[in-house]
Please model this.
Amino acid sequence: MNSENLNNLVKEAKNAFRLALNVAELENAKAKFLGKSGALAPYFEKLASLEIGEKKELGKKLNKSKLEIEKLLVGRRQQLKETQIIKELHGEEIDPSLPGRGKGFGGWHPLTTSLKRIEEIFQSMSFRFVDGPEIETDWYNFTALNNPKDHPARSMQDTFYINNFDSDGLKLLLRTHTSPVQVRYASKNEPPIRIISYGKTYRVDSDATHSPMFHQIEGLWIGENVNFGHLKGLYKTFLKHFFETEDLELRFRPSFFPFTEPSAEIDIKFSSGKLQGTWLEVAGAGQVHPSVIRNFGFDPEEIIGFAFGTGLERLTMIRHGITDLRLFYENDLRFLRQF
Ligand code: PHE
Model:
């Protein structure tokens, strides 16, 4: 263990570092010399047992060698990093003979396109589009709409209930129609009111023409002198624009909804095209029930009007001749690309 040995150690380290071909190998080589049980360690141990004079001399040399080895290490580490970067850059070289990947552009979903058309048409007739919560209370979804607890009409709408309760201790639910939005709006605004409430609705139902989640578009027009004639004119104008044809007939068929009296189903018949000659049901409608007007906070002797509601899916299916509603939600590109 003398200074010559130390010089040799520096040379050995230099060699070992050069042989290391990546950073990990270099760290191993470093441990062999500078580590706790590396080649320099015994020299440092020895220092403790030396006389003060010898201690100084060996100490100096030892430190010098250690610094040299550290310098060699830093230099080699830098070198290896640079080679690594060059290698990586090389690996990413562009191969112009490979086919391009292309960019996939998205498009509007047919339901979104329909909604946008409907929005444009009703907005041009001064209707305002309003949105509301999908989780509703019993009051807004049923009771305010003249559908009291235990009323048999409630079973018309198989409801998804949630295990949370409102301030009256009643279960919250996923709204079964968008009419609750109309109650919310009408209780905060003054007539005349011309709104369309739209959005997702939920019912326990699933087959080719029903889905547990679907979209509704519901209108409310109330004021001092609004009557069924207005409804008929409005809805016919809407349908002509939506289906882009003058060739259609409208029929009001008596029906029942708890929130309207009288109530009607609206059917249409095209006089040309694929669906020519068949009556198709497109909406439910009616004059808003006096109790509902009262729940809005108005006097039914003064304020009167009508409501209508339809499924966005239904209108879109008729417009495009789609026969299975589930296609809307399967995200099959072969279907979606047709629009
Ligand atoms: N909310 C009704 C439903 O979901 C539709 C409707 C709206 C019927 C307004 C009449 C008037 O079935």
User: Anything to note?
Assistant: The longest strand covers residues 213-223.
